[in-house]
Design a protein that fits this description.
Blueprint (H helix, E strand, L loop, with lengths): L4 H12 L2 H30 L4 H21 L10 H14 L6 E4 L2 E7 L2 E3 L1 H19 L11 H15 L4 H18 L3 H21 L1 H11 L10 H5 L1
Antiparallel strand pairs: 1-2, 2-3
Helix pairs in contact: 2-3, 4-5, 4-6, 5-6, 5-7, 6-7, 7-8, 8-9
């Protein structure tokens, strides 16, 4: 069978690998696990009688992630394009399910998770991967359209739907991350600077407006600037970290 340029690239990548990226992922996973133990050992011991309860869950997640990483390293990424539409639809449906009573899990007034029995899932994390896949698939099929404002509208519309559903949970931090991810993908794909500037300004102003619409967001911002002003309230988490 004749190899394409993409097949050749995949073969070279497998042989050489990106060990700096692999090392960074492993290092961040280890550091994150230590942080989780430091932050959760008391509550885990008092609630579950096991100071390592959350650490064990994190390790299981890391092992599953490693398995997925190994699998995808041998998988031709060009084949992922055929999953673009199904994954995008699933991501939107999962984000909508957080608002369904009995399925959406509410904590401190926010619905950011869905639960089935003892299993919980945060759809916004799935949505970020869906956005990456959608953008990569669209850009690879329409490389010239990314230079026009009309050409980037499909990405903006899909990303906008995801961001709207996430902010309604509400979850502003993940919304900001998703917006930055979308802009980063478009910029890396070759979006013109003038289009980037045209979009980033209203996005920034929208973020500022969202902060001032909710008092608790203003308090968090002030606590970030001066956590000692409220060391046992909004500033507690920052001071402990």
């Amino acid at each position: 069978m004749k190899k394409t340029k993409n097949d050749k690239y995949v073969t070279i990548t497998r042989r050489k690998g990106d060990f700096s990226l692999l090392f960074s992922v492993i290092l961040l996973s280890v550091i994150g696990t230590v942080f989780i133990y430091s932050a959760s050992r008391y509550s885990a011991l008092s609630t579950y009688n096991d100071s390592l309860y959350f650490v064990k869950k994190q390790i299981i997640g890391i092992l599953l992630g490693i398995a997925a990483m190994v699998f995808t390293s041998f998988y031709n990424y060009n084949r992922l394009k055929k999953f673009t539409i199904p994954v995008s639809i699933i991501a939107v449906v999962l984000l909508c399910l957080v608002f369904v009573p009995g399925i959406g899990v509410e904590n401190y007034g926010a619905k950011r998770w869905i639960g089935f029995g003892g299993f919980t899932l945060q759809p916004s994390e799935i949505a970020k991967f869906a956005l990456i896949l959608f953008t990569a698939s669209y850009v690879s099929s329409n490389p010239d359209k990314i230079k026009t404002f009309v050409g980037i509208l499909p990405v903006l519309v899909f990303g906008g739907i995801i961001c709207l559903l996430i902010i309604l949970e509400p979850n502003m931090s993940i919304t900001i991350c998703t917006v930055l991810l979308m802009f980063g993908l478009l910029f890396a794909a070759g979006m013109k600077i003038k289009h980037f500037a045209f979009l980033i300004i209203p996005a920034f102003l929208g973020g500022v407006a969202l902060i001032f619409l909710e008092p608790y967001r203003i308090n968090r911002l002030l606590a970030f600037i001066d956590p000692w002003s409220n060391p046992k309230g909004e500033g507690y988490q920052l001071l402990q970290s």
